[in-house]
What we know:
Layout (H helix, E strand, L loop, with lengths): L2 H33 L17 H21 L3 H24 L12 H4 L4 H42 L1
Amino acid sequence: MDRRSSNRYDLVARVFVYSVGGILFFTAIAKFISAFGKEPVLRSFEPVSHLTFRTVFLIFGLVELMAAWYCISSPSKSRRLWLIGNFGTFFLVYRLGLKWMDYHMPCRCIGSLTDMLNISPNTADSVMKLIAAYMVIGGYGILLWSKVQRNESTLEKTRVLAG
């Protein structure tokens, strides 16, 4: 990878990882705020795990908070990108599982924050799907970009050495 490509890759990777870290931090805080609310939905059961939404919000809020911290603090770009891609894949597979179970309610991914921000649950649901796609495409795409750039750099070095 030449210096200019390397700098561009580093900038894109850094902006992407920090943006996802911020998103995960925001959604974790939203889940914690919602988990301690009084909404009746918190006592109902989430269709996949059969845990209450309150429990699911607390568990996944903690998981998202740890992932956000990892995105910001890990020294390994490739591990952060891999984690983000896998996290996004998990979200999309979960959503496909809900669809497969014929569950058509909007995802309560950010809990009651939709009400506090005056956002419709369907809009929040669509935004969360886009965020999951952003994580998958960005995480795996930037990893692939890095691999292609390294392969091109290795090929170029081989051509120079071969004369």
